[in-house]
Amino acid sequence: MKRYERIFWIFEDEPAVDAALRRAAVIARAFSGRLVLAALAGEGREDELTRRLAETAAVLDAGLVERTVVLPAGDADALLAELAGGRFDLVAKKASPDRTLGSYLLGTLDTFLIEHAPVPVLVEKPVPQERIAHVLVAVDLTDDAAHENLLLDHAVSLARALGARMSVLHVWHMESEEALRGRAFTAAAKRAIDEEKEAETRRRREALAAVVEPFREIGISIAVLVEEGPVATTIVEVGKREAADLIAIGTHVRSHVETLLLGSTAESVLRLVETNLLVVRPPA
Q1: Percent of the chain as helix, strand, coil, to the nearest 5
Q2: What are the strands, taking DSSP E only, across the chain?
Q3: Measuring CA to CA, which residue among 281, 267, 167, 276 is closest to residue 227?
Q4: pTM summary value
Q5: Is 181 within 8 Å of 138 (Cβ atoms)?
Q6: Which of 215, 78, 92 is nearest to 155 (CA)?
Q7: Which CATH class name applies to 129-284?
């Protein structure tokens, strides 16, 4: 299981102790870990934010905050340099403000971190729950078993640290279904399409059960869910239906231009979901 011994918390707005930061503190304490609190400062605000960070750190448990750091706003290289070198186990922050046209074209800090941070990113949405009680993990069942196992490792570790139950979801989409049904003029043809969907769902449920079996063997209870539909929207809908407080999802390495042109399931879920999101990149 993964350990979160050093967590990098980024304040994109004014430093303050709130439910989101307290949750990061709970995670750190569960692993005898520590927090590094960072603020992004515009020109002339460095001294003010240094003082505000110190005040925020003083409210948390003694010894929980390792240090504070003020980074120049908009300097991606400085942020990545701080995160580089394997010094952190998790990056956490509250969700960026609502997207504008400029942020859609250039990306928010959240999307930048999802694309470039060398460690998993936990984005806290403004949800009313003080406690995370249900972690939902979205698995795409690709050939990248190492990435799937890494994602599950992180989700299991967080679920244990937070005392949450856990479900694993796989979503697949029969993109040709509409065209097939348009040509299905008989009841038998329509029934054949339904039977094929049921058979494919059954095959995928068996494959998903095989992925989670090693975790069940060590005593972790995991519910298995398989759904058919558009991937990002279905993940969000199932998250609502199952009352998930945290959705964990993997993402693939792409350039920002590729993400902008082709889209990203993780970014789409981030934009649509109303609850917290953990994004895990493939292992290096």
Answers
A1: 45, 20, 35
A2: 6-11, 34-41, 65-72, 90-94, 121-124, 134-138, 165-172, 222-228, 246-250, 276-280
A3: 167
A4: 0.87
A5: no
A6: 215
A7: alpha beta
Per residue in 167-222, pLDDT (tens digit) is: 999 998 876 555 555 555 566 666 776 778 888 889 999 999 999 999 888 888 89
Domain boundary assignment for the chain: 1-94, 129-284
* Order of strands, sheet of 134-138, starting from the edge strand that comes earlier in the sequence: 65-72, 34-41, 6-11, 90-94, 121-124, 276-280, 246-250, 134-138, 165-172, 222-228
Distance, in Å, from the CA atom of 258 to the CA atom of 227, rounded to the nearest integer, reads 27
Closest CA to 132 of 30, 17, 224: 30
Dihedral sign (CA 64, 70, 73, 76): negative
Closest CA to 229 of 217, 243, 241: 241
Q: Alpha carbon 219 to chain centroid distance? A: 24
Structural contact between residues 248 and 235, judged by C-beta atoms closer than 8 angstroms: no
Taking the domain 1-94, which CATH number applies? 3.40.50.620
Is 90 exceeded by the pLDDT of residue 142? no
Give the span between the Cα atoms of 104 and 12, in whole angstroms.
17
Helices 145-162 and 19-30 meet at what angle, rounded to 10?
100
User: For 18-37, what is each residue's pLDDT tens digit?
Assistant: 878 888 999 999 999 999 99
Range with the poorest average pLDDT among 35-49, 51-65, 97-111: 97-111
**278 forms bridges with which residues in the sheet?**
122, 248
Q: Do domains 1-94 and 129-284 have the same CATH topology?
A: yes
What integer pLDDT is reported at residue 15 of this predicted model? 82
Token code pair at residue 181: 């049904």
What's the residue count for the chain? 284
